[in-house]
Amino acid sequence: MVYSRPLPADVVEALTATGIGVQPLGGPLRYFSEVSSTNDVAADLAAAGAADGTTVLADAQRAGRGRLGRTWFSPPGAGLYVSCIFRPPSPSLTSVPGLGPDGASAADATAIHTRLTLATGVALADAVRAATALPVDIKWPNDLVVDRRKLAGILCEGSAVGSTVEYVIVGFGINLRSTAYPREIANRATSLEAELGRPVDRGLVLTHALTSLRDWWMRLRAGRFDDILRRWRELSPSSRGARVEWTGPSGTIRGVTDGIDANGALRVLTGDRTFQIVSGNISWAS
Ligand code: BTN
Q1: Which of 16, 47, 50, 78 could cross-link with 54 by S-S, CB 3.0 to 4.6 Å?
Q2: Which atom of ligand 1 is found nearest the CA of 70?
């Protein structure tokens, strides 16, 4: 087990300046200089009984990970690496289709993940816009992009016991500073400082991110998923009318995006049919 350290002064200053204090999500904010992955630390804490809203922040990750088994490049000080523990109330998020009085089924657990992922995308896009005035967009399902370059990513992981979702770990990484990205992502990644051409206050971005996450989590808990979908659609112009491609069982499929449905699946029109994509990797097609 690694032990947390006192919060850095700039983070304390930014959090207290907003008046929300150092427990923005209602649970303790734990800071580490380096961890394997903040999602792993948060999962260990959650398994040991950590409260809803407990948040893990690290300066660097040795084994930061992204969706679909990818690596999340996490050198010291170059980004915000954060994971939050959310414990859905039981019965959780009562507007999830099929959610019965006994708690969440496996299908419901997937729905909770999808909803939290979409809510987090909205929360972070709004937070970055508010903290920096940079007009970031969302690329389905949950990448924050500027001119098609990736600025931030979200990885939701969880634990269910029987049919009850015990907790969901919402991990997010936001690129703050220009850094030497690995060659395979160098022309697809960007950072706040690269976009803005000026230094960025990480405490301010973190404060906005956690405050916004708290607000959208409260909406989700209140069953206001429609609000999340509406805002998500506003923030994701590329989810309608963009040419995309992905790899299907028999090769590359190309189509045009046609919005997301009420469950957060991306609709793509290929001419002869409509695909509803629930997970996976979509690329821009030229
Ligand atoms: C993606 O876009 O593929 C998701 C990237 C998620 C990265 C964050 S950084 C903090 C947290 N810890 C991890 O190991 N991953 C997430």
Answers
A1: 50
A2: 3
